[in-house]
Amino acid sequence: DVKVTQSSRYLVKRTGEKVFLECVQDMDHENMFWYRQDPGLGLRLIYFSYDVKMKEKGDIPEGYSVSREKKERFSLILESASTNQTSMYLCASSVAGGITDTQYFGPGTRLTVL
Amino acid sequence: GNSVTQMEGPVTLSEEAFLTINCTYTATGYPSLFWYVQYPGEGLQLLLKATKADDKGSNKGFEATYRKETTSFHLEKGSVQVSDSAVYFCALGRGADGLTFGKGTHLIIQP
Question: pLDDT higher for B2 or A17?
Fold first, then answer.
């Protein structure tokens, strides 16, 4: 089975802190994604990566950055956390290819910024 | 641009009732379509998918048919169970650029 793990299930940070959310997948997938999930808004794509050291902006990249130094690991960085970044963050991965690709999701990290 | 619209929830049904959750989409080209399910406290799991017009995806008693003429991908199940209580997301694929999700439909099944 594909396994996508995220470093924390719950995280509480202070405004202005630098926050790292880590995601690791064990299926040698090329593509990795970060989404945030908010009530009434569904999931929105923040950043994605289709190769090591490659990154692309999603629909809502402002206030975030990412890092992909190894194929299996994709990190989401909040340079200076703000209260409007309180959310559930979901990581996903998929094999390279066309539009039929299934994405596999991690369990999510619920981040609270105080 | 791409967008997905699904019915607002929560949807509350009795056990063994028939379920329909509507999903329509707007997209360029011919995207793949997906239904994901999120059980309480968990991440999203793929429920079913369809990759071209008239395809029917099915899994665990759930079905959805890719209707290009109505740009729809409605989710159906003939007899729901309490264990089906979850949030259901319709999504369309953008290839390596990720998925575009609907806002989710919270389904509650009462015994």
Answer: A17
Q: What does the pLDDT read at residue A5? A: 94
Torsion sign across C-alpha atoms B28, B32, B38, B43: negative
Looking at residue B21, its pLDDT comes to: 97
Check CB contact of A83 with chain B, cutoff 8 Å.
Answer: no
Beta strands A73-78 and A65-70 are antiparallel
Q: Which of B23, B47, B99 to mutate to test the interface with A (most CBs of A within 10 A)?
A: B99
pLDDT in tens, B85-94: 999 999 998 7
Residue B17, pLDDT > 90, answer yes
| Number of residues assigned to chain B | 111
Do B104 and A42 lie within an 8 Å CB cutoff?
A: yes
Q: Is residue B6 within 8 Å of residue B102, measured between CB atoms?
A: yes
Contacts of residue A61 in chain B, CB cutoff 8 Å? Answer: none
Are B42 and A90 within 8 A, CB to CB? no
Judged against a pLDDT cut of 60, whether residue A98 lies above it is answered with no
B18 contact partners, CB below 8 Å, separation of at least 6: B76, B77, B78, B79, B80
- In A, minimum Cα distance to B38 occurs at A107
Q: Cβ–Cβ of B43/A40 closer than 8 Å?
A: no
Q: Cβ A101–B43 below 8 Å, yes or no? A: no
pLDDT at position A100:
57
| Distance from C-alpha of B61 to C-alpha of B76, rounded to nearest angstrom | 8
Residue in the block written with tokens 């402002």: A62
